[in-house]
Amino acid sequence: MAYVDNGVTATKGNPLLGKKVWYFLQSTQAPVGAKAVLPSLQTDGSTSIEGDSIDEQTKFGRIVMPSTNEDSIKLKTYVVPGDAAIDIIKDAKHNGNQVKVWRVTVDKRFAIKETDSADPAKTHQAFPAIFGYGVVDSLDLDDGDDLVSADYTLNILDKLKEGTFPLTDEQLAALEELYEFERPGESSGNFGTDEPGK
């Protein structure tokens, strides 16, 4: 047998931080042109790429073949007044609707430039994403002594699809900031009260 050495490859660098992976939701009942919703105060998110295999023994050895895709996305957030994500999940579960979900890697190292289809001279920033239509498996609201949390699982129809998700630097800054700069006297009361800005 001839000697073969095709070499090896390795990747070095700083790993991706979990806080740079954001999940966005949208109701399937939302009109065309509606915005995606970033669930408030995401604490955990996990994506499972799973599925069953056909595994049989024969007289001539084992047969293993792919059978089904069973992808799912599980999210945990803290409940914030006005967060539409909880209503989207609850409505979908109660009314038998699906939910659109995106897992987006919001790290500048992964950003790509996409050409504007309307003006090929312009480019826009986009980030790697996977997308799917999910069926709500469950929504658990934990009303313990601490913060109220929501925990839900979306079982993906077919399988998660790869693509990109556009986000401008301005959108990133707005989504990452908890509140904006104020000048003295613009508002009163604590941040996060029922009547902000009064």
UniProtKB/TrEMBL annotation:
Pfam family, one: Phage_tail_2
Domain of life: Bacteria
UniProt-listed InterPro entries: Phgtail_TP901_1
Family annotation (NCBIfam families): phgtail_TP901_1
Protein name: Phage major tail protein, TP901-1 family
Organism of origin: Periweissella ghanensis
